[in-house]
Amino acid sequence: MKRVYVNEEWCLGCHLCEYNCAFAATGERDMAKALKGMEIHPKIQIEGDNRISFAVSCRHCDDPICMKSCIAGAISRRDGVIHVDKDKCVGCFTCILVCPYGAVLPAPDGHAVRKCELCTDNACGEPACVAGCPNGAIVFEER
């Protein structure tokens, strides 16, 4: 299965992956109009400092502990991609606590969680963070 991988040595820490992720979720055609003045809630996060930066996103684990620990059955796997059913999520945040990568985040509404679903939940087709990375530090490939 293809997954998103990050080469930390190439990451500029520019946060464009976060903006492209947030933009992809809007379904709009113009990034400036869609995001200007808006608080963004990307499903990928840049961590690090001035020396090294890296993107944190869901790794779609082979044996996902988030799915096993979900008390509401809101997390499932379809075609290898781990999905969250926001209607089933009860907001207990157990998945946030157990994710070893810190890739599951609270949703802006505080009721559910958000995580990368490889842009299968929008019209991009492939992860927007990869397409928007100016340095090619984020790739979508099978290893």
In short:
With 143 residues, the chain is α+β, with helices and mostly antiparallel strands. The chain has helices at residues 16-26, 31-35, 65-69, 94-98, 128-131; strands spanning 3-6, 45-48, 53-56, 75-78, 81-84, 105-106, 113-114, 138-141.
Radius of gyration: 15 Å
Oligomer designation: single chain
Strand order of the largest sheet: 1-8
Helicity, as a percent range: 10-25%
- Arithmetic mean pLDDT: 93
- Give the distance, in angstroms, between the N- and C-terminal Cα atoms: 8 Å
Instruction: Provide the structure class.
Output: alpha+beta
**Largest β sheet strand count, sense and barrel closure:** 2 strands, antiparallel
N to C succession of SSEs: EHHEEHEEHEEHE
Strand content: 15-25%
Question: Low-confidence parts, pLDDT < 50 over ≥5 residues?
Answer: none
What is the 3D shape? globular
Number of helices: 5
What is the total tally of β strands?
8
Description:
It is a single chain. This protein has 143 residues and is an alpha+beta fold. The chain has helices at 16-26, 31-35, 65-69, 94-98, 128-131; strands at residues 3-6, 45-48, 53-56, 75-78, 81-84, 105-106, 113-114, 138-141. Strands 1-8 form a two-stranded antiparallel ribbon. Strand 2 and strand 3 form a beta hairpin. The model has no long low-confidence stretch (mean pLDDT 93).
